[in-house]
Amino acid sequence: MTNSTNKKPVYNLEERTYLLARNIVQEMKNTKKDFYNEDDIKQLIKSSGSVGANYIEANGSFSKKDFVQRIKICRKESKESAYWLRLINDSTYDNDSKNLKTLYQEAVELKKIFSSIMEKSK
User: Fold this and answer.
1) The whole model's pTM is what?
2) 87: domain range?
3) What confidence tens digit (pLDDT) does each residue in 101-118 have?
4) Exposed/middle/buried for 101, CB within 10 Å: 0-12, 13-18, 19+?
């Protein structure tokens, strides 16, 4: 569960994946960019956006096989987003950015949700 700007819980997975990408873009706008983290930030923005895009594709798939494949990609991109968030937090904020830690937790939670969907889809 994540919160939107109005602080109401969001259970819709399509909305959660959208909010993850949007909140990451907003946070990265406020992150000091330098030679060392510029590529990490780009990778994070790409992977976080890919989570939601692939989830939308999964919901529109015509076969179970295609659905499962898209969910696998969602899981992979969620895991990658968590990695980049952790790296950026550790190298940019010296471990004291509450926003990045919250985004990291959401990426990990989404990875777990997609893992569960994969297991139940077998």
Assistant:
1) 0.87
2) 2-120
3) 999 999 999 999 999 999
4) middle
